[in-house]
């Protein structure tokens, strides 16, 4: 086997990311050298590569499915929105520009050469490259400068499979409508369809499948069933569907307008003794044991957003009644005395007053810190082994007597202190993403919050098991031989 195959979707969240992840694991288990690739991604959930670059969280999951270290070639262009009208542009792992929405069309001139360079490098290294599209290929307004869907597929002469989510309703309209809006050459490039998230008996769907094949002349490669409680990273959407009946700890997380890396909290959300709730705008942070402040792509604007929601006052009331607060990355910065952005890195240049719960000041810098780290946490007066990654522009200085949250080191660098814990032991902050993937630190967190001792497994093992479960479903549901015959 030698070649590539691209999975495009009728809509965002049609199942492209998990389809590529499942197929990556399926082919890797068969001994095939396979790698994931997404030309352009727009997401605020990201991961750090071994060499200090940044890629979308979905491509990190797909790399895990292949058994590969993370590479910036897997996702050469990442757009991270920092407002409704603009995004930071990351090319091959590094931030290179900030584009207002009206000039997003310029992305092709800025980044397409790098996209093709990364793709061809992967083609040389691997026998199979599985490519994920972005959004829908039928976005008429974006066709001219498209580098994420058919614009890419046409440039590299790559076959395409179109996936649609029947759980949303209207899947036959989605599939045929998308196909009809493509050019003649693009229609020919589409080799067939996958229907995702079907619930019920397949024979109830057979008439529709027969109609789709007859009217388009293209096969349906398979129908993937709905997979309940799949514990895998979401590319962007927040899934708060988990409900806990016997929780020992209640955790609330405010959904900030630019919330980032909310997948940090998946190990907590799925723990049987933890009730983790994402709190939407207009809802209350009250009546919980721990408030977790997440990362954000625009920390000063989201601090204003929190004040407008009344959340800052609720956090201070929560602390007066003995609750605990932990901030991650941007959430850590908010807990300090001030956040300055003299260069306008995230928004307008200026200084914002923080919550004043930690004696910390933060200055945003033009350069972003991107590194994988490991070390030990001092939370709950313990030395707990931890690991994760840092993605931030801020440099935070601890001015008071607070003890550090952790001591961390990265490849070829000496250990440094990270974050801090308030002198009254109620508030803590850290820059470390991926912190809770270790079961040991989850146990320590719960002990810090409630005094309770619980057991928690390693989230990395859970992820591996869930990727295998995903691959099993795809292998059972799809005509893999027919898919292989499309690879070119």
From TrEMBL:
Tagged with keyword RNA-binding: no
InterPro entries with a match to the protein in the record: Class_I_gatase-like, CobQ/CobB/MinD/ParA_Nub-bd_dom, CobQ_GATase1, CobQ_N, CobQ_synth, GATase_3, P-loop_NTPase
UniProt xrefs under Pfam families: CbiA, GATase_3
Biological function: Catalyzes amidations at positions B, D, E, and G on adenosylcobyrinic A,C-diamide. NH(2) groups are provided by glutamine, and one molecule of ATP is hydrogenolyzed for each amidation.
GO biological process per UniProt: cobalamin biosynthetic process
Molecular functions (GO terms): ABC-type vitamin B12 transporter activity; catalytic activity
Domain CobQ/CobB/MinD/ParA nucleotide binding: 5-232
Family in the record: Belongs to the CobB/CobQ family. CobQ subfamily.
CDD domains assigned: CobQ_N, GATase1_CobQ
Location of the CobB/CobQ-like glutamine amidotransferase domain: 251-439
Pathway(s): Cofactor biosynthesis; adenosylcobalamin biosynthesis
Keyword Iron-sulfur: no
PANTHER family: COBYRIC ACID SYNTHASE, DETHIOBIOTIN SYNTHETASE
Protein name, per record: Cobyric acid synthase
Active site location: 329, 433
HAMAP family: CobQ
Species this chain originates from: Aliikangiella marina
Domain of life: Bacteria
């Amino acid at each position: 086997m030698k070649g590539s195959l691209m999975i495009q979707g009728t809509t965002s969240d049609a199942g492209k990311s998990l389809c590529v992840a499942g197929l990556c694991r399926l082919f890797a288990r068969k001994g095939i050298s396979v790698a994931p690739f997404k030309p352009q991604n727009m997401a605020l959930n990201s991961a750090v590569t071994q060499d200090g670059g940044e890629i979308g969280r979905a491509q990190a999951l797909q790399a895990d499915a292949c058994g590969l270290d993370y590479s910036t070639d897997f996702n050469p262009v990442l757009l991270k929105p920092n407002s409704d009208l603009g995004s930071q542009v990351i090319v091959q792992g590094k931030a290179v520009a900030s584009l207002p929405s009206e000039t997003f069309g310029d992305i092709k001139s800025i980044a397409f050469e790098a996209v093709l360079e990364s793709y061809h490098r992967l083609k040389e290294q691997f026998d199979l490259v599985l490519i994920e599209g972005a959004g829908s290929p039928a976005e008429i307004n974006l066709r001219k400068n498209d580098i994420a869907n058919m614009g890419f597929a046409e440039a590299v002469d790559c076959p395409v499979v179109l996936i649609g989510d029947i759980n949303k309703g209207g899947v036959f309209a989605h599939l045929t409508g998308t196909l009809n809006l493509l050019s003649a050459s693009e229609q020919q490039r589409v080799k067939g369809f996958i229907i995702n998230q079907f619930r019920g008996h397949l024979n109830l769907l057979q008439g529709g499948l027969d109609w789709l094949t007859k009217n388009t002349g293209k096969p349906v490669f398979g129908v993937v069933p709905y997979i309940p409680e799949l514990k895998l990273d979401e590319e962007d959407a927040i899934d708060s569907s988990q409900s806990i009946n016997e929780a020992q700890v209640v955790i609330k997380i405010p959904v900030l307008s630019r919330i980032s890396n909310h997948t940090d909290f998946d190990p907590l959300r799925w723990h049987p003794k933890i009730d983790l709730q994402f709190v939407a705008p207009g809802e209350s942070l009250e009546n919980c044991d721990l408030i977790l402040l997440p990362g954000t792509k625009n920390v000063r604007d989201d601090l204003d957003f929190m004040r407008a929601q009344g959340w800052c006052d609720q956090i201070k009331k929560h602390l007066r009644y003995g609750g605990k607060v932990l901030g991650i990355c941007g959430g850590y910065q908010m807990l300090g005395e001030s956040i300055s952005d003299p260069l306008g890195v995230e928004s307008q240049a200026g200084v914002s007053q923080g919550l004043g719960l930690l004696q910390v000041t933060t200055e945003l810098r033009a350069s972003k810190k991107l590194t994988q780290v490991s070390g030990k946490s001092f939370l709950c007066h313990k030395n707990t082994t931890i690991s994760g990654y840092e993605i931030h522009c801020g440099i935070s200085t601890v001015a008071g007597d607070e003890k550090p949250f952790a001591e961390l080191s990265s490849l070829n660098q000496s250990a440094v202190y990270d974050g801090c814990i308030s002198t009254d032991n109620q508030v803590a902050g850290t820059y470390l993403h991926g912190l809770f993937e270790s079961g040991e630190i989850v146990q320590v967190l719960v002990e810090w919050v409630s005094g309770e001792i619980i057991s928690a497994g390693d989230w990395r093992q859970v992820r591996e098991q869930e990727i295998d479960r995903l691959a099993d479903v795809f292998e059972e549901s799809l005509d893999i031989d027919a898919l292989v015959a499309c690879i070119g």
